[in-house]
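Quick illustration, no need to memorize.
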Amino acid sequence: MSGLRNGRIASTAYKALSTQSPLVASVSRAGAVSQREPVAPENASPLAALSAGALCRSLFTNTVSSTPWLLSPAISFLSYLCQPRRPLLFDVERNRPFAWLMKQTVYKQFCGGETPAETKATMRRMRDMGFRGTIITLATETVFDYRKNLVHGLGVEAGAGEGAAMCPAIAAWRKRTLGAVELLDEGDQLAIKITGAGPLVTDALAAGEPLPAQMLDALDEISTRCKAQRARILIDAESQLYQFGILQVGLDLMRKYNRGGHAVIYSTYQAYLKSTPASVARDLAAALDEGFTLGLKLVRGAYLSTDKRSLIHDTKEDTDAAYDAIALGALRQDLLGFSSSSSSSGVEQQRTECKGTQRRPFPSVNLFLASHNRESVVAAHELHRQRSEQGLPTVPVGFAQLQGMSDALSFGLLRLGGAPEVYKCTTWGSLAECLGYLARRASENRDAASRTSDEFAALRAEARRRLGRLLRLQG
């Protein structure tokens, strides 16, 4: 990893992220690229693909996120809007003018739509800009705030009482999630938040107990439908009170659906958690012993403001190192004591034998890297490209960034050699349901000041380029 960090990433990879233009990929559902044609001159900015409206919204939100004295009040304001019993002036469900203003600014920047039709239109725009597809997720979820010892359901319907035959919250979650499956076209994927199914589900997750039969049936139905459409299901990571239960649910689904060397189900592993290497190692062992493919989606983590701080790495550098170790280790097929026969050098194998540890064969793994960190993403892509060209063992990999964030990185990735699968992730649901998600996005930008300042500089350069072109045309 240090070699990649210290300048051995090909300089052309970095150049591609900032100088080349989008391509349109015509791809099969299985992921094979059949054609990639330029839609703009090769020296155009990657951000040339953004519409004027998207560019203006990006400039607005990045102005706020790059200005500390604006960002802190913005985070506090969005967090306040998530609280129950707000006054009429700040209630997006009752104050229509205020709701309209919020929707035209931060909502449209980061969210896909309030209705299936709006979400479908957003997905078409993403495809037109050259992405492999869109990953859509319903906003409803339950968040546990460790600091306040408070459970807050966002868009979650009331659960059923003891002994009830059917839980309305699970039924509503199932119906809306199956509706989302209907929106998926070739290349699109589905992400799910299990806690959005309500109290019966979250109580079981928190207690480490099996999910209600109604929820298990819903997950089976959704998984079967997605597998038939050759779409993947990415199970989102959530609050730590529920996360270990969510990982177990994902593992059980992978045992059933991830057969034949292909992952339908992915679990999300948060690199900022100190426990993540142990969780990944456990699931690698299960995949090897039971003969299924591990769907490994890796993120840094998005619940820093509500999760128990002692569970999280002490510094951002520790989190970055943990992320890169897992991502690059998986791409080398040499991770946490698991290794393909040709991944480790003879010296490494001798060292392992001297330590008295036995390296196990590397299982079947499909990797998905969701990150806004330019260095991590380019290092992973370059390593995958190099190993593929040299005939060395590696794993299938996809990349994703959130809608409205790191667009220069996303479009730049499309330009890199090897035709990577690049996706945009978007959350859909009503404005009220998406408020918690929007607050986390604002908080994430505060914790990534260097990245947002780079993005802001790229956006300003693109705005100046367009303005200069307009003035030249008028002249």
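The mean pLDDT is 85.
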